[in-house]
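---------- Forwarded message ----------

FYI, see the Oxidoreductase record below. Original note from H. follows.
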Amino acid sequence: MKNKIRFGLYGCNMYRTRDLMEAAAVAAGDVVRIAACYDIDQSKARFAAEKYGGRAFESEAEFLACPDVDVVLISLPPFLHADAFAKAAQAGKDVYLEKPVCVSQEGRAKILAAHKKHPVRCYVGLSYRYVTPYRKVAEILRRPEAGRILGVHHHWLTPERKTPIDPSQYGWRQRLEQSGGELLQHCCHVFDWLWWLGGAMDSVTATAYTPPGVPLPHEERELNAAFLYKKGGMAVFALSQNSHQYVQRGTVHAEGLGIQYQWGKDTFVRVYKDRARAAEETYEWSLGPELGDGGEIDRNSAQMKDFIDAWLAGGPMPVGIEDGIRAYDYTCAIRESYRSGHRVNLAGAGCDGFKFD
């Protein structure tokens, strides 16, 4: 078992890089070291090296060949993920890859081919398994008395963009082919969490609506996707990007209990058993900046600890390439369903060779 992990930062200008490095210091600061930094903007690499330590590289090839790097942490715009992963894998480096793992079928194929040829260990940054209220929901559902999941209903509400963006000023976040849109770039977390709760999905049926004249008309403004679990039960995901609020909330209906949850300004999990109008159990969090508040530091440090512990032990990654590919496949299936007007079969999602019927 190893006792140190040496990171190479592949991309130094994303807020997620900062969050993960702060979380790594909290989760396992005594075993983590930043050995190398690389960014196409060399000033960003130098800044990261000054802030976190390590050497700033001007050459991508020299960075990937650095013998002091155990794990390459890839935190780049999503359309660059597949190519960066393939290069890191070819260099024989283990990888921490931010989500989404890819934004196209070409990127999907590149990742799977690279992983097959160079089977490095790769952790994918799908983090909703570590969000405090969502972890509590999963913990409750794993109680013997919970029984089988019958239905999950998750609603993601975000406010409408008020100021139109001139298309000539679009950055990667506004370009569907570079970010994957809200449905892939961010909602992939939920699809992974729904899989984690109830297992593999059998199929999905989706509908979507985007009103005319809105900013970023390629985005799904209102969307509903109904998944059927292979072992029975349903998971319904709703996205509302015109909601005038920012919150995620939902319910879970199991044979032995019901759960109501919310993640936002008011964050809670409530468990209903024998009293339909009053919760028997209530859990609440402030989402403050300290450990135990249920906020971002709790999520990020739990995620990094899970990854670092698994890597040091030489074990399998808790969230791996197949999970990242599956979340991408589920997103593509949702879009295929609402565009075609048909249910889409999900058998084999996340695997090499998966195709829609």
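H. also flagged this: The chain has two domains: 5-120, 128-292+321-345.
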